[in-house]
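Chapter review: from sequence to fold.
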Amino acid sequence: MPIVNRAAELHAEIREWRRDLHRRPEILFDVHETAAFVREKLERFGCDEVATGIGRTGVVGIIRGSRGEGPCVGLRADMDALPLQEATGKPYASAMPGRMHACGHDGHTAMLLGAAKYLAETRNFAGTVAVIFQPAEEGGGGGNEMVKDGMMERFGITRVFGMHNLPGLPVGQFGIRPGPIMASTAEFAITVHGKGGHAAMPHRTVDPVVMAAQIVLGLQTIAARSIDPLESVVVSVTKVHGGDAHNIIPDKVELAGTIRTLKREVSALAEERLHAICRGIADAGGASVSVEYDPNYPVTVNHPEETGFAGSVASEVAGAANVFTDMPPMMGGEDFSYMLEARPGAFIFVGNGDSAGLHNPAYDFNDEAIPHGVSYWVRLAERALAP
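The token string follows.
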């Protein structure tokens, strides 16, 4: 079954919602204007209930079907933007300096609003649809906050589904896989404490710069020499700060970065090796080291049955040839993982075409993807809740 006719009819209206949201990006849990925009739309559509303040600033709309009793299926979109200066030059570019929708959450929100409008009009299902609009996906763990706030129990959600756009995947195509589809994320901060002094007399110092450099290189042996080559792991040092002058060896150097894996046991081993490498190098150089390690989002794991169901729905919308049901996992993180730990479900990618990459100042959500995403949500709800 191709694009839903009503989704095509609503395309221009949904596009304008998306661009309105794009002009006014908000960060983490501070999505009050976006949440108000969502709430107003859901109330106007005639949702049976619109709950706000879930997980601090999340919004949930409840739409009950007209064809009898049934379970409740959750459909989730994220609302927050990134602390990034936009460089698209588009007429609807961010009006907020240092903030932009560089991950397409404006498109995710608009597409789910479009599906909510359709489902509230038709109600051709038995049971309940919960449309979930989540704050703070970009590092704040808003998905976890909504789960901890009792969202699943409050609305009786039995299965939950998520969707994200993917640059490089053609518009009109979908990608999904059972099992791990996105990585766990962990963040680390390392401080090497030495003894500063004159750069011309290094023998009178304990040089933290040299040891920090050794640590940066040593951490790369986690993937190269500590983890099975058939497993997936990324260790990236992304920040280095030490010293303020060309002729002074500083007292300390600060490093920071991230570790990504697709298995908990691999993540645990990587953390163990990080601590050991830092201690060993610091001890050998006569310095001390402190390590802060923050396990962040867990692995996003698609449930097999729900993944097969979501792939079949996408095939109805796009045709089987345009749905990749065994796409490679990605090493980016996603806090929809918390919802998939709480309930069975699946996370799918929808094509954004030949656009700039996610988290890039030149990125923009492709509005041509809107009818495909809306149609997927509509068909998924109607099939999941078929009488």
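Two observations follow directly from the output. The radius of gyration is 23 Å. Residues 5-182+299-384 form a domain with the Aminopeptidase fold (CATH 3.40.630.10).
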